[in-house]
Amino acid sequence: MAKKAKKQQSGSGGTPASVALTAAGTPFTTHAYDHDPASPSYGEEAAEALGVSPDRVFKTLVADVDGTLTVAVVPVAGSLDLKALASAVGGKRAAMADPVAAERTTGYVRGGISPLGQRKRLPTVLDASARTHETICVSAGRRGLEVELSPADLASLTGALFAPIGRS
User: Fold this and answer.
1) Considering the entire predicted model, what is its pTM?
2) How far apart are CA 106 and CA 85, in angstroms?
3) Lowest mean pLDDT among 37-51, 53-67, 74-88
4) What is the pLDDT of residue 8?
5) What is the C-alpha radius of gyration for the chain, rounded to an integer number of angstroms?
6) Other beta carbons within 10 Å of 4
7) How far apart are CA 123 and CA 57, in angstroms?
8) CA 58 to chain centre
9) CA-CA distance, 35 to 22, in Å (whole number)?
10) Starting at the edge strand that comes first in sequence, how are the strands of the sheet with 145-149 ordered?
11) For a Cys-Cys bond, which of 15, 41, 57, 112 suits 47, CB 3.0-4.6 Å?
12) Which of these, 167, 165, 147, 166, lies nearest to 21 by C-alpha position?
């Protein structure tokens, strides 16, 4: 049975991500859906619930690049290339960050980490494929809530650079 997604007006949702978007005057739309805790993939669940191609729904991952926590935003349809991420930020080695450290640093829970409105601004890399879409969806800061915005706006608000860091 397909999950129902609910489209909300810009500014609704009340997460640090939506607050940051509203404060910046950035156009966006939030999409809420009923999250299933048993779902094996938060991103794929979001794509299915929203009826959006998994190439347009991006997951936010936190990696450790040479001792620095770094945010990687890649399509849920693929995976993160850790070597490419390290290279994109001038590092040598990257590994997925400890989940507790990622949650503590970003202020979000796993499966709901947004690249926007994080407790501490981290270096951010957005997969270059995002540029092929007018809008993309990323977590709005909690499981079951996505925000849709232009890749350029996301990059501008997070200070992200575009680089080919995703693998199909």
Assistant:
1) 0.89
2) 19
3) 37-51
4) 44
5) 15
6) 9
7) 20
8) 5
9) 24
10) 5-8, 29-33, 145-149, 136-142
11) 57
12) 147
